[in-house]
Design goal:
The chain is α/β, with parallel strands linked by helices. 40% of the residues lie in helices and 16% in strands.
């Protein structure tokens, strides 16, 4: 999977354990799915999963890992497609100019391969599923040779060691079973006439927009050539694509509308103690909608950029961040929430 700020990679086992402890739970909603890590964990555990996110790149990951049934895909055909794409001659296009020459996210040789493969996907993929799988393979291949700390708001002053490796496509590891994917605002998604046994919520918790943080993935998946701006060469529409969840004054009302609109018997919600909202406020909101609420604290390291320290525009280290760890709260709300959370609370 691609590097992602706020990824729940370390929390997936706990989240899945909570969901599996809910009696009779079979249908799950991952409302802010991002890279689909949690949705994949739930699908692998036997849940029928619906994954939602407003990002186009997230929808492609969802089509590959959540909506696609591994049993319905011909591995030989996927391998042949990826080999054909891998063999395309490099082509200097938008990605090379914008993200390799005007910026330093990828080595120019890899940027030209991204340009060639992205154009080839539109010509060679025969079905929407093949297209999603090929785009996922391209995102993951590009992520393995980038020169960032995991965010696309900036790139490293010196090339990362991995950036010198040649880009190579690998077939994504697909999961058995099928699911559904939506690419829409969370409030619109919960307004759908669909009921779930459990909904997992991982809302944005501060002012940093995932649309801005991962603007390159958005551009690669869309295959467009937006006007870039700034040192980071972000899409111009980053300036106008704003989420209320990233605004301190609007985040509470947005989350409240989502929680009160959920058509689910139970809710699992994760939130950092560095966010706009307090754990007490979230607990009160969940109690209003679901009644019983239990909480599990999880100690977590902060993202790699924090551990690197504070640097000036010349790349010189000029300071340290205030702390290197934070607490991620896991809330479980619904009937018998305390009993469901008790094993994890004891372990924590």
């Amino acid at each position: 999977m691609i590097k992602y700020l706020g990824s729940k990679r370390r929390l997936v086992p706990q989240i899945v354990a909570l969901a599996r402890a809910i009696p009779g739970a079979r249908r799950a909603l991952d409302l802010f799915t991002g890279t689909t890590r949690v949705a994949q964990g739930l699908k692998a555990a036997g849940f029928t999963v619906t994954a939602n996110d407003i990002a186009t790149y997230s929808a492609v990951l969802g089509e590959t890992y959540i909506a696609t049934d591994a049993a319905a895909v011909d591995p030989a055909r996927v391998d042949a497609l990826l080999q054909e794409l891998d063999a395309l001659p490099a082509h200097r296009g938008y990605v090379t100019r914008t993200f390799c020459e005007e910026a330093r996210y990828f080595q120019p040789a890899n940027g030209a391969r991204i340009d060639a493969i992205r154009a080839g996907i539109d010509r060679l993929a025969r079905t929407p599923t093949e297209r999603a799988i090929a785009l996922t393979a391209l995102l993951e291949a590009a992520d393995r040779v980038d020169s960032t700390t995991g965010l696309q708001m900036a790139y490293l002053k010196q090339w990362s060691p991995r950036s010198h490796r040649p880009l190579r496509l690998r077939a994504p590891t697909l999961l058995a079973g099928s699911g559904r994917v939506h690419c829409e605002d969370a409030r619109r998604c919960v307004a759908r006439d669909v009921d779930y046994d459990v909904a997992y919520l991982d809302p944005p918790y501060n002012q940093h927009s995932y649309y801005a943080n991962y603007h390159i993935w958005e551009t690669v998946v869309r295959g467009d050539a937006p006007e870039p701006y700034g040192v980071a060469r972000k899409r111009l529409d980053v300036r106008t694509t704003k989420s209320e969840f990233n605004l301190r004054g609007a985040a509470w009302d947005a989350l409240r509308a989502v929680v009160l609109g959920l058509r689910a018997r139970h809710c699992i919600l994760s939130f950092s103690n560095e966010g706009f909202l307090t754990d007490a406020a979230i607990r009160t909101l969940l109690a209003e909608r679901f009644g019983e609420v239990a909480m599990v604290p999880v100690d977590s390291p902060r993202y790699v950029g924090a551990r690197i320290g504070i640097h000036n525009l010349r790349g010189e280290r000029v300071g340290e961040v205030s702390h290197l760890r934070n607490t991620e709260w896991l809330f479980i709300a619904g009937p018998d929430a305390a009993a469901i959370a008790e094993p994890l609370q004891a372990a924590s």
